[in-house]
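Hi all, posting the design record for the shared folder.

TITLE: backbone redesign
STEP: 1 of 1
STRUCTURE INPUT:
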């Protein structure tokens, strides 16, 4: 979504399956919502960043409106188009920050930017499990295309 940063669709697909098993109505015990399990405050911050971004022409976006992003409500995170847009924006930032190192990208996704220690994800079991699931699914999807 950002200039020059590509996100492989199978990575997002893997993240969705690992986070919510594809359930648009998924709700975690931390109140993370939707396909990619976004916490509302993170969703609001990301929506604001998208509406201010010079790299994104919201007039060209088919399923998400500027108004939706500007007036984001918690239930909007259950809208797959909104959820995936927010996730792609965040993942593109993490991809750039961590130079495509998927374990660090997933760790930052799970715990927030700045959670990685000297180029290594923190030793939290939940995060390590998510890294394993996402990377395993991603490899499976990539290999199944060969």
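Okay, here is what came back for every position:
SEQUENCE:
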């Amino acid at each position: 979504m950002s200039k020059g940063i590509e996100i492989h669709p199978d990575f997002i697909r893997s993240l969705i399956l690992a986070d919510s098993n594809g359930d648009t109505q998924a709700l975690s015990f931390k109140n993370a919502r939707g396909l990619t399990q976004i916490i509302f405050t993170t969703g609001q911050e990301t929506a604001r960043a998208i509406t201010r971004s010079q790299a994104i022409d919201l007039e060209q976006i088919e399923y998400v409106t500027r108004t939706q992003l500007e007036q984001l409500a918690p239930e909007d995170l259950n809208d797959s188009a909104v959820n995936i847009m927010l996730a792609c924006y965040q993942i593109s930032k993490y991809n750039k920050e961590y130079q495509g190192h998927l374990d660090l990208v997933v760790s930052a996704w799970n715990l927030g930017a700045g959670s990685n220690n000297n180029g290594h994800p923190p030793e939290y079991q939940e995060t390590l499990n998510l890294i394993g699931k996402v990377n395993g699914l991603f490899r499976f999807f990539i290999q199944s295309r060969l």
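COMMENT: The mean pLDDT is 93.
Let me know if anyone wants the other runs.
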